[in-house]
Amino acid sequence: MSRLELSPNFSDPDAFYAALTEAHRERSEADSERINARLILLLANHIGEQQVLEEALSIAAADSEQPR
Q1: Which residues touch 6 (CB under 8 Å, ≥6 apart)?
Q2: Within 13 Å of residue 59, how many CA atoms lie on the same side as its CB?
Q3: Within 13 Å of residue 33, how many CA atoms lie on the same side as its CB?
Q4: How many C-alpha atoms does 19 have within 13 Å on its Cβ side?
Q5: What 8-state DSSP symbol labels residue 66?
Q6: pLDDT tens for residues 19-28?
Q7: Which residues contact 16 (CB under 8 A, 6 or more apart)?
Q8: How many angstroms separate the CA atoms of 57 and 32, rounded?
Q9: From which domain of life does this come (predicted)?
């Protein structure tokens, strides 16, 4: 049973960030939301394990509840 990897695991985080921001450049808010939704579903499919996905969702949802 896998656990969610929480340690830094990017081979090149700056390159990924640059590609992500470029994918959103000059897009409408609705287009950006569609890109994010598709990206989430593609990565969730790649992970595949329900328990890992639920752990990630729980962590992401808890973080969004924190005051800013």
Answers
A1: 59
A2: 10
A3: 3
A4: 6
A5: S
A6: 999 999 999 9
A7: 10
A8: 20
A9: Bacteria
Residue in the structure block whose two tokens are 């450049």: 25
Low-confidence stretches of the chain (pLDDT < 70) are 1, 63-68
**Contact present, 42 and 33 (Cβ < 8 Å):** no
What does the pLDDT read at residue 67?
Answer: 61
| pLDDT of the residue at 66 | 64
Which residue in 33, 34, 46, 32 sits closest to 2, CA to CA? 46
pTM listed for this prediction = 0.82
The dihedral sign for the CA sequence 52, 56, 62, 63? positive
Which of 38, 37, 4, 35 has the alpha carbon at shortest distance from 20? Answer: 35
Measured CA to CA, the distance from residue 50 to residue 52 in angstroms comes to 5
